[in-house]
Specification:
The protein is an all-alpha fold and 270 residues long. The protein has one domain. Helices cover 76% and strands 0% of the residues. The protein is built from eleven helices and no strands. α7 runs parallel beside α10. The C terminus is likely disordered.
Length: 270
C-alpha cells in the first residue's frame, strides 16, 4: 500500500476527513431535536427517511469491507495498482456506523410521534425491496468466484443511487406544501459543509499521490458529495428564497387596538 509523500498533506487529509465526519454526523441531530421539540414528524418525508436507512446501510457495508477486509484490499490493489492507497479512511467507517444508528432513531420517532396523514409510500417500499433483493442475488453471483471487490462496489453504487433518490420525495413534498416547516435547515447546512470538506479530502490525497485514483477508484464517494451539494442547494433555495418561514409574531406597530381587545377578552374567557 502506498504511503504519504508529504507530512503536512497527510495532516490536512486527516483534518478535512474528520471535519467532514463531524459535519455529516452532527447534521442528523437538528432533525432529531426538531422532532423531539415538536413531538411531531409532520413535514419530514417518510420515504426520505427509509431511503436514508438503505443508503447508509449500503455505505456502511462498503466502507467497513474496504477498510477491514485484507482480501478485498488485495483485490483492489490488483485492480488499481499496489502503489495506490485504499480510498476509504477510518472516518468514513465511523460516519457510516453513526449514520445508521441515527437514522434508526429518526424512524423510531416517526413511529411514536404525531405524523398526521403521512405514511411511507408503496413506491418507496417497492424500491427498497428491489434494492435489497438485487444485492442478495449479486451475493450469490459473487460467491463462486469470490468477486468481493465487485460485490462491495455494488453496495457503493447502491448508496450513490439511493443518495440521488432519497432527496426527491422531500423536495417534492416541500414544493407541494409550499413550506419547509418540519424539515430542519440546520441538517442541510451541515450536510453541505460535509460534502465540500469530503471533496477537499479527496483532492489532498490526489495531490500527494500524483494520481486521481482516489476519485475514479471510489466513484461512489465522489458522486455522493456531488449529489449532496446539488440537492442541498435546492433545499437552501426552498428554505430562504421560495418558501421562507413565516414570522411567528407580529411587530408591536402592526398590532391594531381591536386585536388587543380581542386577545384580552379571549384571555378573560380562558
Amino acid at each position: 500500500m502506498a504511503s504519504w509523500n508529504s507530512g503536512p498533506l497527510q495532516v490536512t487529509y486527516q483534518v478535512l476527513g474528520w471535519s467532514s465526519f463531524f459535519c455529516w454526523s452532527v447534521a442528523f441531530y437538528p432533525q432529531v431535536i426538531l422532532n423531539l421539540r415538536r413531538r411531531s414528524v409532520v413535514g419530514l418525508n417518510f420515504d426520505f427517511a427509509l431511503f436514508n436507512l438503505t443508503k447508509h446501510s449500503s455505505y456502511l457495508i462498503y466502507n467497513a469491507s474496504m477498510y477491514f477486509s485484507s482480501v478485498i484490499q488485495k483485490q483492489y490493489f490488483e485492480e488499481y495498482g499496489y502503489g495506490e492507497m485504499i480510498p476509504v479512511a477510518v472516518n468514513d467507517v465511523a460516519f457510516s456506523a453513526h449514520a445508521v444508528l441515527i437514522v434508526v432513531i429518526i424512524l423510531f420517532q416517526i413511529v411514536i410521534y404525531e405524523r398526521g396523514t403521512q405514511k411511507i409510500s408503496r413506491l418507496a417500499i417497492g424500491i427498497v425491496s428491489v434494492v435489497w433483493l438485487t444485492a442478495a442475488v449479486c451475493f450469490f453471483i459473487a460467491l463462486p468466484t469470490h468477486s468481493w471487490l465487485w460485490l462491495v462496489s455494488l453496495f457503493n453504487t447502491i448508496q450513490v443511487c439511493m443518495t440521488a433518490v432519497k432527496y426527491l420525495p422531500q423536495a417534492i413534498m416541500n414544493f407541494k406544501r409550499k413550506s419547509t416547516d418540519g424539515f430542519s435547515i440546520g441538517t442541510i447546512m451541515l450536510d453541505f459543509s460535509g460534502a465540500i470538506l469530503n471533496y477537499g479530502q479527496m483532492v489532498v490525497q490526489s495531490i500527494d499521490q500524483g494520481s486521481w485514483a482516489s476519485f475514479y477508484g471510489n466513484a461512489g464517494k465522489m458522486t455522493l458529495s456531488l449529489v449532496c451539494v446539488f440537492f442541498d442547494l435546492i433545499f437552501i433555495c426552498q428554505r430562504f428564497v421560495l418558501y421562507p418561514a413565516k414570522k411567528a409574531f407580529k411587530s408591536v406597530a402592526s398590532v391594531k387596538p381591536e386585536d388587543e381587545i380581542e386577545e384580552h377578552l379571549c384571555a378573560v374567557l380562558r
